[in-house]
Every structure is written in structure tokens, then in C-alpha cells.
## 1
Amino acid sequence: QVQLAESGGGLVQAGDSLRLSCSASGRTFSDYAMGWFRQAPGKERENVAAISRVASMTYYADSVKGRFTISRDNGKNVMYLEMNSLKPEDTAVYYCAAKLSGSTRAYWTEFESYRYWGQGTQVTVSS
């Protein structure tokens, strides 16, 4: 299994940037497809980005496309979410998630697909 820990959240103003990190330990990181999810108060957890095992494929929700970039460094066991042009509606707890994958190109966007989760990091964007 894999253990995940997010970092990099904080309080920023609209238009600012943040980079979230998800550090992994345990089983070989490159065995897992990864995803970033977020959950705002009173809302369901939603997928914002996903990436395949070797970063050959990526996915972005329409709400973040062009502003967020997902990446991973399998040599360092870390996944990133670069967030630019942040908006107040990006305010949420951000979670990273991992799914054991047999494919180098597959990614998943459904919450139920992921077995391993980090504890979350708060991102607050003020207007």
C-alpha cells in the first residue's frame, strides 16, 4: 500500500498562485495513477486533475483547465498541483489520491476509484 501526505496549502488572494505537493511512501510510487480532489464546505468531493502512472496522460476539470497543472516526479515520489490565477471558488480542502494501475496511460476521475487518500490541505482564496 501507499501512504500520502499533502502540503503547500494556505491563504492567498485572488489571482495568486500556490503549488501543492503530495508525498508518497510505501509501495513503488510509479505503480499508481494519481488524482487531486477538492471538497468545499457543503459540497461533494470533486476531481480537479488526474495523471497516469508515468505522466503520459493527464485530465483537468473544466473549472481549472488552463489554470492548474498536475505533474509528478516518480524519482522523488511526489505529485504536484500548480495552481495559478486562483479564484475564491477554488477555496476547498485539497486531497491527493492513489489508485494501483496496470496501465501506463490510464487515469481515473471518480472518487470511488481511488483507494488511498491523504489527509488534505486547506486552500483559501480571498477576494
Note: The chain has a mean pLDDT of 96.
## 2
Amino acid sequence: QVQLVESGGGLVQAGGSLRLSCAGSGRTFSSSAMAWFRQAPGNEREFVASISWSGDIRYYADSVKGRFTISRDAAKNTVYLQMNSLKPEDTAVYYCAADRGTFANGSYSFRNLLRYDYWGQGTQVTVSS
């Protein structure tokens, strides 16, 4: 059974930091692009950051650029999201996602949630003002 399991969410004050982790199991994600999305109450799920299978191509939403960093550890089948200078508007459930690697649907960009076939259950991040 293929799974992505997020961890590291929680409650933090504005200006603080959190590090999210997403561990994959059931298959290797070494050839997959991976990404983080988030969804606040009443809002659609939105792109946060993505990383290519090699780790050398990264994209960020404008709202998090310069504050968040995505990285991966292929040996651990894990992707991370370091979040610094957190703001109340970063409050959301954060989801990890992975595409099918070689068989990924290249019609969708790395920023499009339709590209990704595997999803975690989400982890709550709450930033207080």
C-alpha cells in the first residue's frame, strides 16, 4: 500500500518556524516530483512548493518565496518543508503529494495539483498573531 505520511505541524506564533516532513512508503519516490499544497477553511487547495526528482528544480508560490524551503532525502524517501517567518495567513492543512515519476502526466505543471497521484492525509499548521 502506497502511503505518504506528513508530520511536524502544530501551533506556532507569528514569526516562528516549523519543519514539516513527509515520509513515503510502499514504493520508492526517487523518480517522482514531490510537492506541498495547503488548504485553509473555505479555500481551495493551493500550491506551496515543489521539487523535482533530482532535487535541483524547485518552485515556490509567491506568497512563501524567501520564507519556505523544500528539500528531499531520497535515501529516506522523505520530503521536507522548512517554514520560517510564519504568518497567520499561513494557517492551513498542509498536504504532501507525489507524482508517478516516469509515468507522470507531463500535461500538468508542477504547480498543478492534477499532476499528483499520491497524497498524504495532511497536517495542521496554525500560526497565531
Note: The chain has a mean pLDDT of 95.
## 3
Amino acid sequence: QVQVAESGGDSVLPGGSLRLSCVVSGDALRYYTIGWSRQAPGKEREGVGCIRNSDLSTYYEDSVKGRFTISRDNAKNTVFLQMNNLKPEDTAIYYCAARAGRLLPSVCASPREYRTWGQGTQVTVSA
């Protein structure tokens, strides 16, 4: 059974950068679309973006577009979330999730489309 595990969270200053990793185990990454979501205290989990397995295309929510980049290395079974120009409102627990097969671009970043989740990694952006 496929599992995912996030790492790389840390505390950074506004304007800083972080790279999160999501390691997939139990199956080959190439079969899965991977989504990133986040949850801030007192708020619902929201989608950040995703990378599809079918064509390696990526999609981002407007709040992170132009600052965050998702990439994948199928040989290492790992997906990355590069976060630049971080803002205090990016503070949250970040989760990756896996979904076998294809997802339509319009729903690829939605947390509702995923069933396999990691434990999350904390990102704190503060002066």
C-alpha cells in the first residue's frame, strides 16, 4: 500500500525560502498524482498545488502562484515543493497526498481528491 511522508519544514523569516520533500513508498511514484495542501491553525485544509503523473503538468492556487514550484523525481520516488518569498500567511502544516491515476486539472489541487496523506511538516514564517 502506498504511503507518503513529508519533510523539510522549518521556521524562516519573511522573504525566505524552503524546500519540502514528499517521499512515496510502497509503490512507484510514476503511477500517482501528488497534491500539496496546507492547514493553518483554526482554518480548513486548503490546496496549494499538484503535479500530475500523466503529463507532469503542475497547477497552483492563486495564493502561491509565482512563488511555489512543484517538481518530481520519479527515480527517487520524491516530489518537491520549492517555496520562495515566503509570507507570514504561508504559516501552516504542509501535507502531501497521493492519488493513483489521472486527475483533471480543474480538481488536481483539491484536498478532496486524495485519500493517502502524510503526517505533515510545520512551516512557520515569522519575523
Note: The radius of gyration is 13 Å.
## 4
Amino acid sequence: QVQLVESGGGLVQAGGSLRLSCAASGIPFSQNAMSWYRQAPGQQRLLVAFVSGGGSTTYADSVKGRFTISRDNAQNTVYLQMDKLKPEDTGIYYCHTVVHTVLYWGQGTQVTVSS
């Protein structure tokens, strides 16, 4: 059974930092690409950051230079370090992966950035 469990969200002032974690189970973690998505109120879920099984990373233009995605294959965990947070970063952050063409999502963790 595949499980993705996010943690680390919260309320932070603009300019602050948060670190999100996603603990994965039931997947060949070290081989799997992992992603973080954000869904703001009333908007679509959008890709924020991606890390391949080999460690290559991709970021949305809006977070480049502020967010860092990383993975710990020994802990089956992917992280999203978010620095210099802005109010527009507010939303629910979801961990995501694909296994044999099946899409999996975590339950999401709320991030709220106050101005």
C-alpha cells in the first residue's frame, strides 16, 4: 500500500522559512521521482518542485532561488525547504509520485504566509 505523509506546514510571516517533509512507504523510493505541488484557494494544483530518482531538480519559476527540494533515500523522505516566503506561497502543499502509471498524492499540509 502506497502512502505519502506530509508534515511541516504552518503559519509564518513573509520573509520566513518552513521545511516540509514527505515520508513515503510502499514504493521503490530511491528509483522514483518525487514532486511537491501547491494548491491555492480557488486555483488549480500546480507543480512547485521536482526531484528525479537520480537527484536532478526542477522548480517553478516563482520559487527558483527560494525553495530547495531534496531527498533522503535512506529515510524514504523528500523535503521542501522554503525560504524568503511570500504571501502568494500560501496554499496546501501536496507530495506526489507516480508508480507504474498510477498517480499518488499525500493528504496535503497547509502553508499560510502572512504579510
Note: The two ends are 40 Å apart (CA to CA).
